[in-house]
Each structure stands twice: as C-alpha cells, then as structure tokens.
Amino acid sequence: MIPFMDLKAQYESIKDEVLSAVSATLASTQFVLGKEVAAFEEEFAAYSGGKFGIGVNSGTSALHLALLAAGIGPGDEVITVSCTFVATVAAIDYAGARPVFVDVEPQTLNMDPRQVEAAITTRTKAIMPVHLHGQPADLDPILAIARRHGLKVIEDAAQAHGAEYKGKRAGSIGDLGCFSFYPGKNLGAYGEGGMVVTNSEDYAHIIRLLRDWGQERKYHHVLKGFNYRMDGVQGAILRVKLRHLEAWTEARRQHAAYYNTLLADAGVQTPTEMPYARHVYHVYGVRVSERDRVQEALQAKGIQTGIHYPIPVHLQKAYENFGGGRGDLPVTEKAAAELLSLPMFPELQNAQIEAVCGVVREAVAHGG
Ligand SMILES: Cc1ncc(COP(=O)(O)O)c(C=O)c1O
Which of 17, 82, 313, 368 is deepest in the core (most CB within 10 A)? Predict the structure, then answer.
C-alpha cells in the first residue's frame, strides 16, 4: 500500500515540537489571532519575499479578501483560468465579479499569457493566475499586460509555497498573493488556514480590517467585514512547520527528479520545470492517455493516486451561469482527461517511487 500523501509520517517526525507549541498556545488562551499568528505572519511573509502577511481562516478567504482589497466588485471582470481548484473562481464570484477564462499553456498548465490581452474588456479589473501544482505561471508577460491596461495581478499561490519565478518567491510578485494552509498543502495547518501576502501597506491594512469584522477598534466597524481570522493554534503549528518547509520542498524536488528519470521512456508525459521556475511539486502530475485505466491498475496494486482536476471549472454545473461550454478551452479540457497525480510527499521513499513507476510502465505497455 502506497498512500497519495502521508500526513501521519510527517506528524510523527515533528510531534514533540508541535505539541509543545500547541500546549503553550492553549495555556496563553490566545485562541484566535494573537501573538503566534502575528509571528507566523511576519515569518511567512519574509519567507515568501513580501512585506506584509495577513493570516486568515482559509486560502479561499485569502482570495476573497485580496479581491475586495483590490477594489473588485459587482460588474467587474477578472481574467483567470479554468484549470484550477474551484476556489479560485468561487472567490471571484463571492466578490460579485465575473470570471473570464483563458486557456493554459500545454507544457505547464498555467495561464497562457498570449491569450490574456484578447480577453480584456472595459470591465476587466484584475488578472488572477494560478501557480498550478506548485510551478509559477509565466508572470512577466502577465505583469506587462496588467501594467499596460491598469489591471491588478492577484496570484493564486495556494499550491506554491516557496516556489520561485526568476528567483523571486511566488505570492510576492503581483499586487497580492494568496496562500492556503489546508492540511495537504506543502505547508499545511492542522485545520484550515490561509494568508494574503502583499508589499502594499494599504492593502494589508484593508485586509486586516476585513478579516476581523471591519473593526478599527473593538466594536468600531469602519468596513463591512467578515469572520475570517486565523486560529492561534494554527499559527503556532504553522510556525513550527515553516522551519521544516525548505527541507520538505527539497525532498519533493528530489522525488520529482527520480520519477522523471524512471518515467522518461514509459509512455507518459512527466511535468516540465520551466527554466524560469522553482517548482515545489505540491502535485506530481503526469499526463497519460487512458488515464482511468492506468489509475485503476495502480489502485489494484494498492497505490493511491489523485486527479487534479477531473472537471475544469468552466464545465462545472455550479458555474454554468458564467456561460462556459465544452470546446471553449481545449488545452484545459484535454489536461482534465489525461492528468494523473502520483504519490508525492516529503517522506516518500525511493523504493516506493520505483514501485509506482513499475506499475505505471506496465499499465501503459499493456494498454490498447
Ligand atoms: C489553486 C487553489 N486555490 C485556492 C484554494 C483554496 O484554499 P482553501 O482550501 O484553503 O480554502 C486551493 C486549495 O484548496 C487551491 O488549490
């Protein structure tokens, strides 16, 4: 049995540090925000190359508040991708704006900058690229288009903690960057969590207000806000885990390199790390025709896999009001049919990677 990820193994390796941080936080009774969250905000913003970090209760809340801080609301359009987790689009919808989808590049499955300009209308206010699977989108051309048209760039860096674009950390390159600390993420809380990173003091100020009921002081509400605060215990746990993140990321990168070697001639397309990128392999996704059959063969041997994601957002029933239809985004739709995420977590063993690759190779070879 080879799991898709192994949160238990990771917990065992840091248990003492985590329990002592949790215990100190409980004793302090700073259950919501508090000094552990404040310290984590500073440490994670610094890690991500940004000036300010604002801790919230999920990556989705981070995206929602980033959009609101950027002044996006009803009647506005945000250019984004459909090849993503639904939260990217949900956040745009929460803000009352309309997502406008562009297709992705076949090699990276990230926003294709060459398609962005044609999607701009008089209503466009922002561009929201997603750093899918932990590899940054090609941001320079996207930023150039944004500057030319006076648009904001909000990075969905939910899967890209510590990823780099031309030596700069993901999440600190656009106007605002949004992270998720969902447990399975490269930096995962033991519950929900998220953060907005920005270099703008004004945005940071607005987001700090919005996450806490728009209060300037207790019971003095200057903005219509939300209860999007981060828990004290999550801040304390995330501080402990942040100290291990670089080692975990390097382990992921080594596993990806080993997979790439073993799968080089296996009849699957392995992920490409672009010359501008440091890919952090939140997901190690290969592309294979007859994906479902290969997934079943792995399952039969006790190897867990995932699909990120089987249905693009523009084809999801919940979002049909945005007018998406089959054939709109051919690269995205083809990827959804072919992507298969193989086991990837820092504690993965080389022998496990060898076993996975052996089954993949056999399943592909015996295909039609
Ligand atoms: C690309 C992307 N955006 C947004 C989110 C939302 O984050 P959360 O689950 O913390 O709300 C996630 C992860 O779940 C994600 O993968």
Answer: 82
